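Changelog note: in this version the structure field was regenerated for every chain. One regenerated record is shown below for reference.
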Amino acid sequence: MKNVLRKIAYMVIGSLLTIIGYHFGNIENNTADAQEKTDNPIVDEIRCRHLLIVNEDGERVVSITTGDTAGGIGIYNNEGTEVVGLAAASHGSGGIELHNKDKKRVVQLGTYADGRGALVISDKDGKRNFAR
């Protein structure tokens, strides 16, 4: 009987220590938050491989991605169509594309790894009108 009472006493002491630790660790001094609890929180750095920004309806507005050899930013309209695309590859090429509401590329400005540049302007159907 003495051992049972001793075990119960240890369980009560352990439970009290757990509750005290939980209170001071999570309620009074919560340092697990990524941002301060202020009216204007600022985070110094966000590290991720894909960042998706959505509007109030949950539709994507901006997408920032990275891969093994390239990174890019896409900006979308309210229908979910990418209207602006920016890309940069590790071998030195990159570009900007503008799309119309029908998902047709109408302007493309880019650079190649060898230093050449390109400019392509298309009509509303995506047919090239000017290329340089």
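Spot check on this record: The chain has a mean pLDDT of 80. The domain at 50-131 is CATH 3.90.930.1 (Outer Surface Protein A; domain 3).
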